[in-house]
Amino acid sequence: xxxxxxxxxxxxxxxxxxxxxxxxxxxxxxxxxxxxxxxxxxxxxxxxxxxxxxxxxxxxxxxxxxxxxxxxxxxxxxxxxxxxxxxxxxxxxxxxxxxxxxxxxxxxxxxxxxxxxxxxxxxxxxxxxxxxxxxxxxxxxxxxxxxxxxxxxxxxxxxxxxxxxxxxxxxxxxxxxxxxxxxxxxxxxxxxxxxxxxxxxxxxxxxxxxxxxxxxxxxxxxxxxxxxxxxxxxxxxxxxxxxxxxxxxxxxxxxxxxxxxxxxxxxxxxxxxxxxxxxxxxxxxxx
Length: 287
Fold this sequence. Notes:
Layout: H1 2-44, H2 48-51, H3 66-74, H4 77-107, H5 114-123, H6 129-142, H7 150-153, H8 161-172, H9 177-184, H10 189-197, H11 202-217, H12 221-226, H13 235-243, H14 250-282
Helix pairs in contact: 1-14, 3-14, 4-8, 4-11, 4-13, 5-8, 8-11, 8-14, 9-10, 11-14
């Protein structure tokens, strides 16, 4: 009995030591990832002379909040933000709706070639973007969409393999008895999707929305290919084009960087619980 007690105490001690070491590692990694962002924010509040002081001064002597006002006067930043918001919103809504419809058909409806079609959808993930870049440009130029925002968000309304996979895996975990009970009550297929299944997929929908938001918000290659009018530039392309004029004014460059990153921080902070839960329950992170 005494040996069992000693073994239990030693095991408990090992667990506590392991958790302590794990927390220390996570804290160190967290600080490592946070320091660069802190330096960016600190630099955005400095004067130009303070940026190049050696050794580095981590805190500005007097915060220059006017740097954030100055970047709006030097760049058409408001226009870039509005264009980015338009493309991101339309692209995210299209991704969520198309993923819901296709995933429902591939997970909740029983038909002959369902698995083959799903394998074909997954096969599109094997194609790198550079392979479809030229055909897509030719196609969009034929329909007159070059130098418009349509190529940046319209394809999202036709589904994406990764988002369909994530949503389908989540829906497969829901019991089929829910659909059968709804059909007995006289619900149509679309009513089952939007009034029964969709409310139960909040976590997966949030995860898909966040992934899609980041993809459209950070999209650089698409605007670079299709846009030539400065008034239609999105935030990533606009910052890149104009940075050559202000590459010596690092305090302003950092101010623009903070402004561009802020929506991502807010989005993840608001939806992080649903995002993590959606990824875990879809099977991507393992069950």
